[in-house]
Amino acid sequence: MKYSLLCISLLLFYACGTSKEIVDKPIVFNEERIELTKEYLATRYGLEQDTPTIEPKMIVLHYTVIPTMEKTFEAFNQPQLPSRPEIATASALNVSSQFLVDLDGTIYRLMPETHMARHVIGLNHVAIGVENVGGTKDVPLTKAQIRANAWLVKYLTEKYPIEYLIGHSEYTQFEDHEFWLETDDGYRTKKTDPGDDFMEAVRRRTKKLNLKPAPEKS
Fold first, then answer.
1. If we measure between CA atoms, which residue out of 183, 182, 202 comes closest to residue 193?
2. Residue 115 DSSP symbol
3. Residues 133-167: tens digit of each pLDDT
4. What's the distance, Cα to Cα, between the start and end of the chain in Å?
5. b/e map of 12-41 (b: 16 or more CB within 10 Å)?
6. What is the DSSP code string of 8-66?
């Protein structure tokens, strides 16, 4: 009897250990941000919409290079872009993502999953963004973040017709793809996040989902 109770306890422990939850921590998504988002969709992608919504087809993983969740949230929170001269000419809309994963693996939902976030050039209209706190030598990405990203990818593929899982560094490989809508051929930024090792680890954990990688450039 004691042995059976121990087994049940261990099963419950490991089941709970693999479960996750999403913590809602919304950034400001007021009328100003809605209008800026609709403007972005229209001017960058030629999509005239009454709402700032998207139909998710891919998940893009990032790192923030910001050492804490609090500082990252602060950077994304306001509708207007702060001083970012390399991207400010494209739009006054602030950068953001639908999700933010802290160093301990806690998953925060910053905005509705089907509202457009500005996180990847050319693809925001089909992409759900997942930002990961850190990514520097002093604050490296963690195993807890790998596990959380894999769980989140599985969660999202159960809700939406997700076809691709990519890292931010791979976004330009879509330039000849039907998803690519950026109107300015000169508007690009070079990205390295979230790193090959991180992407390989998440892809290994989500292999059974059969998500496509970024297309090879010809």
1. 202
2. B
3. 999 999 999 999 999 999 999 999 999 999 999 99
4. 64
5. eeeeeeeeeeeeeeebebeeebeebbbebb
6. HHHHHHHHHHH---EEE-PPP--HHHHHHHHHHHHHHH----SS-B----EEEE-----
Return the amino acid letter for 214.
A
Strand, coil or helix: 26? coil
In the chain, the largest separation of any two C-alpha atoms, in whole Å, equals: 70
- Residues 6 or more apart whose CB falls under 8 angstroms from that of 151 comprise 20, 107
The DSSP symbol for 92 reads S
What is the rounded average pLDDT of the residues 100-111?
98
C-alpha span between 115 and 86 (Å, rounded) = 24
How far is it, in rounded angstroms, from Cα 55 to Cα 141? 29
Predicted confidence (pLDDT) per residue in 67-95, tens digit: 999 999 999 999 999 877 778 889 999 99
Q: How far apart are CA 166 and CA 179, in angstroms?
A: 14
Which among 70, 68, 58 is positioned nearest to 157, based on CA atoms? 58
Report the side by side order of strands in the sheet with 22-24.
22-24, 107-109, 99-101, 127-132, 58-61, 164-167
* DSSP β-ladder status, 164-167 and 127-132: unpaired
